[in-house]
Amino acid sequence: MSYQERYDYFRRAAEEALRAALPGDVPEPLRSAMQYSLLAGGKRLRPVLLLAAYNLLCEDITPALPFAAALEMVHTYSLIHDDLPAMDNDDLRRGKPTCHKVYGEGMAVLAGDGLLSLAFETMAASQHPRAFAAMKELALRCGTRGMVAGQCADLTAEEKGGSEELLHYIHLHKTADLLTAPIVMGLTLAGADEGLLAAGRAYGRHMGVAFQIIDDILDVVGSEAVLGKHIGKDAEENKCTWVSVYGMEKARQDAAKYTQAAEDSLSAMGEKANFLKTLARQALVRVQ
Ligand code: GRG
Question: Could you tell me the residue ranges of all domains in the chain?
């Protein structure tokens, strides 16, 4: 299988699991609001990362699918809340009107809340013998010492102004934590030893920081049509980004540096890790 065929195989499997995980007995319009954002598209990067990490040790990815779906639910909740007027105030996401534009602010808050709870319900229902450890990893990475803490720093930086220390904190927690979680969860579910988990953590951290640096760059030079969201918002809102703190040239250099570090983290694994190494490279040259 080529890199792209493998990516599509993982993405399709995750999308099927996502569709199956949304219960039929959620009241309307909450169910429609959750479904609207969940099935709006996107790269499905986090579930793909989880399935690829799991697949390093286990051939059959079926037992990992509820966890892949859960990750995308948490990611989607964060995007819905991030787009709200109280946060980034965006009306376009994944090429479509944002959840609150279609369903109203109150329903968008509830859709996000609902997806976060459903993520943990879905993982618990899997009855996987290592579900508890995977759930704990996700709770830590998405919560008040992880993604939510990063978002808090991002919001306060708008008022306080940015510093290098704050910038690194934001990138590590707002973005890299939710890109490290899939790797650690996939490896944990597959029964990896501590050496492999440490390599996975380093890969996720470096790739995640590179991913957010590219996000910062694309907000300046990207195409709205390709990205499916408005650009130029970081400068408008005085955000603390790699471009605002270091300038465009260093941002590009650092994205390449962190990507190389991500690849190097997996060097002991040889060819088995080729998919994840290529994924990091592709994330560096992404345009969406
Ligand atoms: C708890 C009220 C409340 C809000 C939480 C934590 C949070 C809001 C938001 C998370 C911050 C956030 C949106 C970070 C950006 C991370 C990022 C680069 C998102 C885009 O990811 P892609 O490019 O998107 O993978 P697609 O659309 O492809 O899935």
Answer: 3-283
Pocket test for ligand 1, best of 81, 83, 207, 242 (most atoms within 8 A of CB): 81
Nearest CA to ligand 1 atom 10: 78
Give tens-digit pLDDT for 200-217. Answer: 999 999 999 999 999 999
Residue 96, ligand 1, Cβ within 6 A: no
CATH number of 3-283: 1.10.600.10
**Tokens describing residue 45:** 């990067």
With CA atoms as reference, report the closest residue to 62 among 189, 159, 167.
Answer: 189
User: Strand ranges (DSSP E) for the chain?
Assistant: 92-93, 96-97
| Tens of pLDDT, residues 7-65 | 999 999 999 999 999 999 999 999 999 999 999 989 999 999 999 999 999 999 999 99
Q: Are 10 and 48 in contact (CB under 8 A)?
A: yes
Q: Return the structure tokens found at 272.
A: 């088995």
Kindly list the distances between the CA atom of residue 208 and the CA atoms of 70, 83, 85, 280, 288, in Å, as whole numbers in the listed order: 19, 21, 26, 9, 15
